[in-house]
Amino acid sequence: MERTRATDKLYARGIQARMHPAEDGQPAAPKEFDLYLDRSGEYRWFAEGEPTDAAGESLRTAVENARLRWKGFQVVELEGHAVTSETQHDIPERYAADDLEKVATG
Known about the structure:
Blueprint: E1 5-16, E2 31-38, E3 43-47, E4 50-56, H1 59-69, E5 73-78, E6 81-82, H2 96-105
Antiparallel strand pairs: 1-2, 1-5, 2-3, 3-4, 5-6
């Protein structure tokens, strides 16, 4: 698969809590997602290293799109810091196009 990340910088981490137990009756491990800057000018969520269709032109919209797509999704890390509150105000209105320009100009 062609590389879609503009940089290897990790912007956020998220998890989707699984509601159903695994086949052995034990609680299922949460599914993990990583947010990277995509070459398309969006922040895109990746699962197991593969791009998903959840993305956004800003950090806030990328997080909101993940919440809409995956029931039980929550951000656990944002730019290297643990997230303790899930309010929209904690997530900056930062735009991928600006970060993509910074990557392009070095």
